[in-house]
Fold these 4 entries.
Entry 1:
Amino acid sequence: MNRLLELEKELARFSGLNTKPNTPAAPVAPSVSAAQSYGGYHYAFEAPKKGKVCVLTIDGGGIRGLIPALILEKLEVMIQQKRSSMLIQDAFDYFGGTSTGGIIAASLLVPPVINAGKDDFENPNQSMNKRYRYKASDIASIYRGNEAQLIFGREPSRFGSKIQKIQDGIYVKYDRAGLDQVLRDRIGGIQFRALLKPCFLTAMNITTGAGRVFDNVTDGRWLAVDVVRATSAAQTYFDPVQIAEDGRRGGNWFADGGMYQNNPSKLVLDRVVYNFTNTESQFGGIASGKSPKITSYPNGTQVSPEDIVFVSLGTGLGNTGVNGEEMLNSGQAFWIRTVLDQAMSSNSIANDVDLRRILGNAQYFRLNPELPGEVEMDDISPANIARMTQAVNNLFTRESERINQLVKLLIDNN
């Protein structure tokens, strides 16, 4: 239970700053280096006040990220009906995400000030009126309107017949410049360690061929926007990204975390129960069958599954099956996307089953609405937005008793 307090001490040591929880350090003079470090301010983690450790993870799924974004928005409304000052960020101690889920998780933890030397730095008092830059209701706008058009509206600019080469599976489907612009606007120039609570984001290191879990303590010097670019570099949709610590040029190449673990819940649980690690190896701890009572935290504090409330948000249950006869005469692009979709879907289901077994229904909540058929990860049409919105509304109606139980648990624990 004292792990977050330990993280605060470790973060202060690592950064060379001494800060108190929720207390910003003195502003850094506007400069390029300041914009790439803390956005003008440095924030320490806040230890949980009481009760259980609460964990939130969010699956990948492209435009279907609207689903968990709407779920969080509705949960925050329900929470604030009982406790008006409580934000969805206050309800959780650890955050994790893959791909679009990584965008959401990181966005929730962005501090009020993100760009030293720019408008929000010049008037910091206005920005400091709120503890987080974004409310839950601010996240869903990523998937509607201009930002969605930027992400999924630009074909790659290359020589030759673009349409034909896309159909042949030679080119990725979209120019990632639009996605990068949205992420820069949302997250700014802060380092990963400036996010306000512990955050785990998955990616696939295609240079080494190993999965990677970035965390904002041991990987704190990476730029937050680079880590989010890595987790959201959706295969076949966007080019991979080459990133290095501190925003330096070069480094390894990374692709979407969905190639590793589209549902990051088991990875995050493993790290909460054991320790932070940035090793690029297969599961340790829980996933390998070791005793969940064991912990390797420096202070010896134990966090067992009995101490945890775990909320896992999916991006919708759709039909990822295909007619085998259709595959007989299909090209590479169809095969690649179909296999990837099915691999990500099966991973999400398998991790859901494992988390239910490990934690039980009293501590584990999986919110993943049923979709009317398969929803493409890049379908930004108004009709599809409406379908996903209705799916979330249906979930809250069908699972109202269970969701009310979760909301009460989150409030009572805060």
Entry 2:
Amino acid sequence: MAMIKCPECGNEVSNKAEKCPSCGVTIKKKSSCLGNCGSIGCLFFLLLFFIGALGANRNNDRRSTYTTPNYTNTKKEEQVKTIKTETKVNEVSSKTDEKKDKETIYKIGQTIKVGNWSYTVNKKEWVSDSLVKSYNPIFNQKSEYSFLQISLTAKNEDTSSNFLPNVHLVDEKNNVFEPANVHGEKVLVLGLDEVNPSLSKKGLVIFDVPKDRKYRLKLNGGGLIPLLKEYVELN
């Protein structure tokens, strides 16, 4: 128990006494500054602790709702898409190749449109050297094999005049033969004879080829589209 002096009479009085026993003056207790500061400090500490705990809970909530991207699955999906795309491209390519392999083979007498030209093979026959020479008396060349003569009608379907496209013979081994160098009134001069729009030109195309093979006549679109082609079976 601590003793303090009475502010009125100066006698010593207990710090817990409410009144001075000598003069009866009420003793005013002084509040402890240290105690008050300590209480404030405790409250401040508790406030900081509460704020910190609340912030930690919010961070935990954010972490719990955030999903880490699955990069492995994304890469797998991209690989699958790439494979599917490549498969489709390969399918289209294979179908195109199948169409090329399954080219339409026409017959003698049919009219075939190829690019800006329509063709009709009227007939074909093996002929003698003397008959070929009759087309042009100056022509003295004998056949190396045999002369295959083809009667051909070509019509210009374009809006302007065009030169007759060249044609070729193709055998079963895909050997390609050029027309023989035969000239005459009845013989078509391929690449030089000019045909006006909507008009036709009929004549002969002669090939010097072996007789013991199967042949197709290869017709093309001429002009800027020579890659367009069709075949006529001659056997």
Entry 3:
Amino acid sequence: MPADAPGPFGAMALSFSGGGARAVGFHLGVLAYLDRLALLEDVAVLSTVSGGTFVGTSWALSVKEGVPFARYLADTYRFLGTAPFFDRAIQELTAKNPPLPGARRTLAVSIAKAWDVLYFKGRRFEIFWRPEPVIHLEEITFNATDFKNGISFRFQKSAGRARIGNGKVSITDEQAQRIRMADIMSASSAIPGGVEPLAFPQDFAWPGDDGGVAAREEIQASLREQVKTDTIPLMDGGAYDNQGIDSVLLAEQRRLRRGQSALGLFVICDTRLRTDTFYTMPAPPPPGKITFTHVNRWMWGLIGTAGATVAALIAHFIEDTHRADLVHVVGFVVPMIMALALAGSLLWAREKVLSIIADLSKVVRAPWSRLDRLTTNVAADLVNLRVGSMLALTDDIFMNRIRSLNYAYVFTQPDLKNRIVANEIYDVVTAVDGAEAAGLPGWLTASPAMVEVAKAASTMGTKLWLAAPPPGQHGELDGLLACAHMTTCYNLVRHMAQSCRKPDGTFTDPRLDALWTKAQADWMAMRANPYAFVPSL
């Protein structure tokens, strides 16, 4: 392919953020609208994270396999609306045989198996190394997070040379080609707390007549040489860079080293949940009257009762030794087992609590034994506050901070100025009135219907799958697609208005005139009907 894409923006880069099913629907809509503007084949760099990785992997595969975009969109739309994905994942997790021989029986491995069976159909990363056909996607990166080293782990294919892994641990191109696409998808989207880490390479399905043992052991030996361990735990790429920005910047450096021009446009597609409140303090519970002193006494009472029950059963059985029928034996054995199990469970729980208190004493010297004076209501409130605030920290505050740092970097770099579009899912909702004052055309205002659709999409909670729509109505996926269409249109027009004009008011590239006219017509159509370009499938 030519060194630079032929479109009015030049070579483009897309990064798709995480965000669960919300990200899947929005990013699919971004691709659909870029295709509508005939810009999709100008995309030379692709970087994806978590939910965005499904759209990235599926679209990149369709490009490499020569599938027309309209067919890809239709097939993906149907898959997202009908595939029994998590039913299959749970079936794999609970099946008699593990989802992957030799690997842990985990939800992460089961999800990878479900992806492979229902969508990827055994396809492996090697497809992107095939010489034909040559495609416009020169740089492809699917991002996970290396939990051993605390940095990104990149599954990537470059037109030049690119490290697969990171600066501390990496694998060869030959080893990477054996990776199943479903395993890349599962690693990139393994949400901390939601699923388990995916152990690399043990939890990956490797090819070979020996069940992949040789391929796995080859990588394990390489890992031991590099980092003194044979396992790298991989999780959601969003834990390190939820917008996939770093990978695009590295891809541009590789382009420049190959003698190609800089990227003309970098579109950061971000589906961060729009919220003004990351955490709300729950109302304090009533103090309650039952303390752990009471619980401890009741526990000993139950243990004593269980012991007395066992003794009484044994005495009764000895007295009736002349009765050896099955009913008599069962009537003795079953209650005895239940009483012993109750006593054993209570003693085990008590010892576990005492062990935790002993461990706490090693960290902080405090009179932990006095905690038995707390009521159960207060204790439950302490746990609720800790868990809730920790989830807010990891899921929202921490992720928001990472996003802020990434944005602060890219938007303050002089060489990136006027080449970046932040395409955020809530932009239509937060767009200010008086567009002309911001240098935007007066027609670029959202209708109430557009705002309503965008608000519903941008406040949709993070979940792993989209609900099927009611018959004859637009569902969640339709709303996300519509939101992506209007948001992408809005941000491209804003970019053209603010960054693509000469001092005399004309565009820097004459072809932008036709793009502007097309975007204006589309915006007007979406003002009348926000679902104007959502496929009727």
Entry 4:
Amino acid sequence: MPLAFRQLAAAGNLDNLRLAIRPRAATAAGVTPASATATAAPAGAAAASAAAAASAAAAASAGAAADGDGNARRAVPRQTGPVDPLPGTGYRGPIFMDSDIYKTLEAIGWELARGPQPDLADYAASVIDLLAEAQQPDGYLNSYVQASGEPRYARLTWSHELYCAGHLIQAAIALHRGAGDSRLLGIATRLADHLVTEFAAQEKGLDGHPIIETALAELYRETGTGAYLSLARQFVDQRGHGLAGDSGLGRRYLQDHVPVRQAVTETGHAVRALYLEAGVTDVATETRDHELLDSSIRRWDDMLATKTYLTGGNGSRHVDEGFGDRFELPPDRAYNETCAAIASLQWAWRLLLATGDAKYADHMERVLYNGFAAAIATEGDRFFYVNPLQRREDHFEKDDPGRRRAWFNCACCPPNIMRLLASLDRYLATSDDSTLYVHQYTGARLAGAGLDLELVTDYPWSGLVTLRVLGAPPAARGLALRVPGWSAAAAFKINNSPERTVAAQAGYLKLHQEWQPGDEITLRLDMTARWTHPDHRVDAVRGCAAIERGPLVYCFEQADQPVRLEELDIAPGTQLTEREVILDGIGRTFQVCAAARHVPPGAGPAVQGITAVAIPYFQWDNRGPGAMRVWVPLS
């Protein structure tokens, strides 16, 4: 959190909000918004401001509009990239900078649920004060549009107005649920009411970046206001009819090429597609639209089978940060944006809630421990935006060596990481009236169905999971423990009874009895390291294999090899051995070792007797630069 506070200040996120306030303040004082904006422009921007003003005046008859204060707003011809601010506005960073503030506020909301933290509460209060001052009388709120003078909703393909609104709504719900703070919720509901007025029962357009759909559905759950759910459903049903506009990258990039119910596979920008699917699942669940839910499930099955990396990541093309063709999964060109991992987890969570199928919890685990966890350095102060499964020793993408960074100009990932980490406890378990379902394993206190449990484990290093009953009702209750699909064997026992083999039902060990405080349930999962082989249709890794241990995907990093990594291969079926070690820059880990060959360039003979060493993928790039690969060639 402190890192985020510093970076948001340095990047200008809060200054942008203050910039959005100035036109209103100037209007109240009798100063025109144009002159107020010019005053806010930085030194040296006068010529650009004058040019922008002249262009705006020339275009006045083509795009006049009004803001929530009744001030005239004019369309401004753009001479910059689609997400770059207009020159002369004084606005810093991409035009969706508000979303980073909202993700940070959401993280604070979930953190405050753990107990008082005055520094976080004070920071949130100060930002909410700014937002309250910036919000227009009709509920509209977007710092870039308000500061720049661009007309509202005129460029929904790229303006991210509803995307930012969605993140604001999600932040408000987190603060309301986590801290009991309703101030931001009031701002969010006024903004949502404005969106209903502007968009309901109209074909005004769709935001090029989905997330408003799931935000509105969640706001409906929080407030009971049916108009929010209706608008979310409208946005879902309108997708695929060209209302998202021209991205310059084709309609598939925006998931706007075919109606949602008819789509059979994931296409286009991965984060957008996966956030859309989370909203689709929310809408389908709340409206009991089985056809819509079934369409989302079909696409999920297709994505897992043909467009998902071993780490759970999605996105095989850099050019549009998007999905490729089926089985187009090159390890070295994997994009696998960190935000896509988060969006994938959110979609899987909603499908788990809608269906109860353990396969969604299995995938959440794969994403959490691999595709997501790899994005964060051991010290928690550097991040990956892109998460490849192979990095060559001479790798550069433009001038980027592919290392983690402290922050990004497009900083969507770090605050997104924060909001997921802060809310992780809410993904561990669910319950109905009679059964508590445990989906993920980590040290935690769990409650549901009248049960109060303590979960103790050294997961993911150990497969031993212990649940201690702290409180229980005087009646039989069910306890369902997920048995991951990767565990070749599993056993359990209750108190001092003999250990028994698990007979999992739909992916869960289901126990039903009257529990007593002090009862102890032990689940033992098989953590033996194993070889994994790719689908033969994934051409890029045909003839290779990877190592997994429990929920962890492993990788080979140059720092652990006796010869150049690119010159190693391994015989099929080679026995794997394990050892627990402490490594500089990493800390505790379990290495997995295999006998390998050194195959030098040229016609020289291969050298036997080499030991290849693998570490968990999420721990790579913590010991300096160097080659890495998940898939190793078989000899």
